[in-house]
Write a structure and sequence with these properties.
single chain, Arginase, Chain A, 8-stranded parallel beta sheet, 13 helices, 36% helix, binds manganese (II) ion, metal ion binding, hydrolase, Agmatinase family protein
Length: 384
């Protein structure tokens, strides 16, 4: 009798026959997987919030709400640490944690538009949108990892002295058996970050570097700018250039001087055309093989400008034609599943960003890397 009597006839008939196939969907599978993830830490957090933040006013029906926000609700409230992890004031205690996030608010290595010193602040703020749970990964970071935000490295208006500060900071965290995650900052920090890790690795360190640019010059404008980190990092005796894999390179911003060094040092370069031709999985295989060959650990350096400039307006040297977000996320997932010894996310420049989208993609990459490591059993030993 209704106008909809003849709607969906073929599917009405099939419905019963096909319903079992729902379970083929990853989307459904993950919904069931969620039931197996504990909520112990969330419950503890809620208890603390009511204890320290006071129970809510009597008129409020939801008694999980406190008077002062202490747990991660609502998203627009609270003092932002990265992914709402606890701020660790005493960095001497960093060894109690699986992961430590540190800001590196340094951008005097930029050669065009600056602003990456505000990257850590922007990523911390937009990371408030994230829960600690990822549907696709089937991981709740809070329930699997001891994480903290140790604040920012005190960088100053001198590149070399700032390198010394960054080196000391990364070295301290890594020496305590904690995974250091650096929120940049411009890409010049790649050298001191890698150096801080390499000095504690009893063997070679491979580098997987996502970028549109090679960053392989010895100097730029007479200084070790953000165009130079891998020249210097691969001069570290246990970080040989043969273990440096540079992925996403291309476009019109790659200086010929840097290209000459690809040949000279025998680094591995993967362009976006290679990705188009071979696919992310094959490219990830190549990157992992090269980076891990004879190495004991692999470092992940992600320049946010490795993504197509349409997705990352907030960066110093945007270039069209880079990774699409899904491709980049798939790539870092593959890399992270083998395990990484440290990671930097650089070149988020909030003054040029639009609706925080560059900072959000940076945050997403880090969160996905951690979830992939947890899922693959490569991180979380300190969690009890
Ligand atoms: Mn770059």
């Amino acid at each position: 009798m209704g106008f909809f009597d003849n709607h969906g006839l073929s599917f009405r008939q099939k419905q019963a026959l096909e319903s079992d196939r729902d379970t083929d969907l990853f989307g459904i599978e993950q919904a069931y997987k969620e039931a197996k993830i504990p909520e112990i830490e969330s419950e503890k957090e809620l208890e603390r919030s009511l204890k320290y933040g006071l129970e809510a006013a009597p008129s409020i029906g939801d008694r999980t709400i406190s008077t002062f926000t202490r747990e991660p609700r609502p998203a627009h409230a609270g003092i932002p640490t990265f992914l709402r992890t606890p701020f660790l004031e005493d960095v001497r205690r960093v060894g109690e944690y699986d992961v430590a996030f540190m800001g590196v608010p340094f951008d005097i290595g930029t050669t065009y538009r600056a602003g990456a010193r505000f990257g850590p602040e922007a990523m911390r703020r937009i990371s408030k949108l994230y829960t600690s749970y990822s549907y696709e990964k089937g991981v709740d970071l809070k329930e699997s990892l001891k994480m903290c935000d140790i604040g920012d490295v005190f960088t100053i208006a001198n590149i070399e002295k700032s390198f010394d500060q960054i080196f000391k900071a990364v070295s301290h965290v890594f020496s305590q058996g904690t995974l250091p995650i650096m929120l940049g900052g411009d890409h010049a920090i790649g050298y001191p970050c890698l150096r801080g890790i390499a000095e504690h690795v009893d063997g070679n360190v491979g580098i997987i570097h996502m970028d549109r640019h090679l960053d392989l010059q010895e100097k730029d404008m007479d200084e070790r700018m953000h165009t130079t980190p891998w020249f210097h990092a691969t001069n570290i005796p246990n970080a040989p250039p043969e273990n440096l894999v540079q992925v996403g390179i291309g476009g019109w911003q790659v200086p010929r001087e840097a290209v000459k060094n690809v040949r000279k040092f025998n680094t591995t370069v993967v362009t976006i055309d290679d990705i188009e031709r071979l696919g992310i999985d094959r490219v990830a295989d190549i990157a992992l093989e090269k980076a891990w060959k004879g190495a004991k650990a692999v470092y992940l350096s992600v320049d946010i400008d490795s993504f197509d400039s349409g997705f990352v307006p907030g960066t110093g040297w945007p270039e069209p034609g880079g990774f699409l977000p899904r491709e980049g996320l798939q790539f870092v997932d593959r890399v992270a599943r083998e395990g990484i010894c440290g990671m930097e996310l650089v070149e988020v420049s909030p003054p040029y960003d639009v609706s925080d989208q560059t900072a959000l993609l940076g945050t997403r990459i880090i969160a996905d890397v951690l979830a992939a490591m947890v899922d693959a059993g490569k991180l979380g030993k300190k969690f009890t």
